[in-house]
Amino acid sequence: MQHHATATGLGPATSLSGTATLRRQKQREYLRFIYPTIFLVGLFSFLPLVGMLALSLTDYHLINGWGGTWGLQNFARLVLDARFLNSIYVMLALSIGGVAVQLLVGTAIAVGLDQIVPRWKIARGFFTIPFAVPHVAVALVWLSLFTPTLSPINAALDAVGLPQPTWFSSQTGAISAIVIADTWANFPFVMLLILAALQGVPRDLKEAAAIDGASQLRTFFVITLPLLKPALLLVTLFRFIETLKHFPLIYVMTKGGPGRSTQATNYYAYVQSFENSNVSYGAAISVTLFIFAGFASFWVARINSRINS
Amino acid sequence: MIDRRTGYRFALGRLMMIVLLCFALLPVLWSIVLTFRPKISLFTPIWEAPLAWSLDNFGALARSDFPAALINSLITAGGATILALIVGIPAGFALAKGGLRGTFQTSWALLLLRMAPPIGIVLPLFLTYLNLGLLNTRVGLTFAYMSLTLPFVVWSMWTSFSQIPSELIEAAAIDGATLPQILWKIVLPLSRPGVVAAAILGFLLAWNDFFFALILTRGQTATAPVAIMNFVSYASVEWGAIALATIVLTLPIVPVIMFANRYIVQSLGGAVKG
C-alpha cells in the first residue's frame, strides 16, 4: 500500500522530508473520502454492536424494563443453560453438515461444468437460479417438498410402493431437511467461486500432466485441487459463518422443533429476546456468536492480505 | 488437450451432472406447478389429474398485501443500496489508492460486520427505534439495511479499485486533476463491472433479508419476504400464492444474475482472484 510514496510527481531528486509532507497531505485528502462511511458505519453498525454488549451486562426485559443490576449474571446463566448448550450442538451440526454438503455439491458442479460438460452453457445459467431466491421462499418451497401429503417426491415413492421419508418428526430428519434446503440455496455461491478459481488454473500445467500420462482424475487431485486450496478455504469460512447465522430456514421450516432439536444458537437468541422478552439474555447469546465471528473474520482478513501481498 | 471424453468414467460424470441439474431445478419446476394448481387438486399427484390447472393464485396474490410489500422492498433495499454506493465508493477508492495505514484492521472490521450475528445489530436498533419512533418505518429499515450494504460495497469497491494501475492516477494528478475528478472521470469508468456487481449484490443482501424486516417492520411497512409469511396460518397454508410470490420475487433477479455472472464472480469473495 506504500507504492504511493512517489505519487508527488517531483521525482526522486526531492528531499525526503518534502516527499513525506506531500504524502501526508495526500493521505489527509484521501481520508476525507472515508469520513462519511466511518460516520454511518459507526452509527448503524458499531454503535448497535456496542449496545448489544452493554445490553448483555444488564437485566433489561422488554416489558419489565431495567431492574437496575449490572454484571456478568447473564453469562453465568449461559454456562449452566442446557438449552444454550443444546443450541450450540445444533448450530455446529447444521453448520458442519451444511458446509460439507455444499462444498461437495458446489465443487462437483463447478468441476463438472469446467471439465466434463463445458458446452452446457444453459446449464450454467440454470445452476445459478437458486442464488436469486430469497431464503424465506427457499424455506417455504422446500417445506412444501418435505410435507408428506403435498410433496411430489412422496407421491412418486408411494406410487412405486417405496417407503416415504418423514422429515420433521426426528432431529436427524429435521436437520437433514434444513441442510438440504440450505445446500440448494447456497451451492451456487460455492460453484461460482470455484469456477472462477478453476479459470485461474493454467491450462498448460494440466496439458503437461496429460502428456506425462496422468489420468484426468489424477491430474485433478494432484494439480487442480491443490491450486483450488485458497479458494476452497475462503468459501468454507464464508459459508461456515453464514450457516452460524441460520434464521429463515429454521423459522419457517421447523420453528426450532421437533422439541428443541433444531433450535440453533442464533434462533435461540431470537426466542429469548422476542418470544420470552428477555432481551438482555438474548444479547448475551449474541455476544457469544459475535466472538465466533471475530475470530473467523480475523482469519479471513489474514488469508486475504496474504493473497493480495 | 488430449481428448479423453470417452469411456465409462466420462459417462458417469455426465450422469452426475444430470442428477445435480435435477436437484437444482426440482424446486423451480415444483413452484411453477404449485402456481397453476387449483386448491382442490393440490394434494392429488400431478399424474392423476394432469389437466387440473387454474389462474386463481394470480388474483389471490394481487388482492393480498404482497404488491404493497413488494414496493416496500424496492424502496428500502434500493434506498440502502444507493446510499451505500454514494458513501462507499469514495471510501473504497481511498482504501485502495490512498496509501493509508491500518488497511488490515479496516479489512478485518469490514469482514467482521459482514459476519456479525444480525441479531446483535437488530436488537439494539429495535430498542432505539422503539424510543425514536422509527419502528415500522421505511426510513428506519432503509438505514438498518445500510448496515448490511455499506460494509459490503466498501469491501468490493476496495477490491476492484485495487486492480487499477496507480500510474494512471498519478499521471492525472500531475495534470492537475483533483481527487474527486480522478475518481469520477478515470477510476469509475474503468471499474464499471465492479460497481455493477457491488450494486447488484448489495441490493440482493437487503432484498433477500427476512430477519431485519421481521423485527423492525409490521403490517403496512413489511417487506415482501415478510409478507409471504402472511400466506401461512395455523388454519391453512396458501401454497399456490406462496409459490407465485416466490416466482414474482425471483424472476426479475434471475436475468440480472445471469447477465452479471462474470462481475459477480470477481467480487463475490473479493479475495479469490486478488
Describe this structure in words.
The complex is a heterodimer of chains A (309) and B (274). With 309 residues, chain A is mainly α. Chain A has two domains: 3-56, no CATH class; 73-308, MetI-like (MetI-like fold). Chain A has helices at 16-31, 35-56, 73-80, 82-116, 121-128, 135-146, 152-159, 171-199, 203-211, 216-244, 248-253, 265-275, 279-308. The model of chain A is unreliable at 1-15 (pLDDT under 50). Chain B is an all-alpha fold and 274 residues long. Chain B folds into two domains: 7-54, no CATH class; 64-268, MetI-like (MetI-like fold), CATH 1.10.3720.10. The chains are: A mainly alpha (309), B mainly alpha (274). Chain A: Pfam families: BPD_transp_1. Chain A: Residues 88-300 form the ABC transmembrane type-1 domain. Chain A: Belongs to the binding-protein-dependent transport system permease family.
- Structurally, the number of domains of chain B stands at 2
Low-confidence stretches of chain B: 269-274
Order of helices and strands of chain A: HHHHHHHHHHHHH
CATH architecture of the largest domain in chain B: Orthogonal Bundle
Mean pLDDT of chain A: 84
CATH homologous superfamily caption of the largest domain in chain A: MetI-like
Q: Termini distance of chain A?
A: 9 Å
State the total count of DSSP E strands of chain B: 0
Largest interface: A-B, 116 and 110 residues
Report the strand count of chain A: 0
Name some characteristics of this structure.
heterodimer, A: about 300 residues, mainly alpha, MetI-like fold, 2 domains, 13 helices, about 70% helix, about 0% strand, flat, disordered N terminus, B: about 270 residues, globular
Short structural summary:
Chain A: It comes from Paracoccus maritimus. The complex is a heterodimer of chains A (309) and B (274). Chain A has 309 residues and is mostly helical.
Give the SSE layout.
The complex is a heterodimer of chains A (about 300) and B (about 270).
Chain A: H1 16-31, H2 35-56, H3 73-80, H4 82-116, H5 121-128, H6 135-146, H7 152-159, H8 171-199, H9 203-211, H10 216-244, H11 248-253, H12 265-275, H13 279-308
Helix pairs in contact in A: 2-13, 4-8, 4-10, 4-12, 6-8, 8-10, 9-10, 10-13, 12-13
Chain B: H1 7-36, H2 56-63, H3 66-97, H4 103-115, H5 118-132, H6 138-162, H7 166-174, H8 179-190, H9 192-207, H10 211-216, H11 224-228, H12 239-250, H13 253-268
